[in-house]
Amino acid sequence: MSEMCCGIVCLSLSLPTSSSSSSVSFTKRNGLVLDYNYNCGHRRRIRDGIIVASSDVVSGSNWDDWKPLKPSSTPSLSDTLWPSAGAFVAMAMLGKMDQLLAPKGLSITIAPLGAVSALLFTTPSAPSARKYNMFMAQIGCAAIGVLAFTIFGPGWLARSVALSASIAYMTYTGTNHPPAASLPLLFIDGVKLHHLNFWYALFPGAAGCILLSLIQEVVIYLKHNFKF
């Protein structure tokens, strides 16, 4: 069905669907579609060659991130136990190394390694758990933190610049590894780490990741060969 008035053509269509009928209406002037409406609440307009989109309803998918995922099956006891045991062993070994390094005023146990442990032991196939991504991000982001502190000193500006530069670095190089983004902040606010200077790029983050990578191989072997 169509109507024409003052050079404006209005066209209405009825589109049957499996659940209910829907209607679409178009407004046309001099061969240009100015507007169309769909009765579910979605609406688009063309103004001066620019499409402007709007919607009167909020898509349900916008809230999906706030809902828990429904796992296809409950994890087995072994899939839960081995990663947890790996994390325990990792922290115990790092703690023992701390005792050996204490006389030199060094410590290898830092909070980001806890996040790395969770990533390596629970989601070893995730892109951010790849060894290349992990070491490139750990070394690069740590160096960025030292550089930001050297230029701006302690404070909010150094933290802001270091974090934004770290995210840009990981994005540009394709080495996304979220735990590494905390390394610059840790250095800037950690007075005990300042004496390391650019050695911080290798220790304790990257050095600790070497140990965690070795433990990860054991965890993966146990998960695949000792199921219960």
Automatic annotation (TrEMBL):
<protein>
    <recommendedName>
        <fullName>HPP transmembrane region domain-containing protein</fullName>
    </recommendedName>
</protein>
<keyword id="KW-0472">Membrane</keyword>
<dbReference type="Pfam" id="PF04982">
    <property type="entry name" value="TM_HPP"/>
</dbReference>
<keyword id="KW-0812">Transmembrane</keyword>
<keyword id="KW-1133">Transmembrane helix</keyword>
<dbReference type="InterPro" id="IPR007065">
    <property type="entry name" value="HPP"/>
</dbReference>
<feature type="transmembrane region" description="Helical">
    <location>
        <begin position="101"/>
        <end position="122"/>
    </location>
</feature>
<feature type="transmembrane region" description="Helical">
    <location>
        <begin position="134"/>
        <end position="157"/>
    </location>
</feature>
<feature type="transmembrane region" description="Helical">
    <location>
        <begin position="198"/>
        <end position="222"/>
    </location>
</feature>
<feature type="domain" description="HPP transmembrane region">
    <location>
        <begin position="74"/>
        <end position="221"/>
    </location>
</feature>
<dbReference type="InterPro" id="IPR058581">
    <property type="entry name" value="TM_HPP"/>
</dbReference>
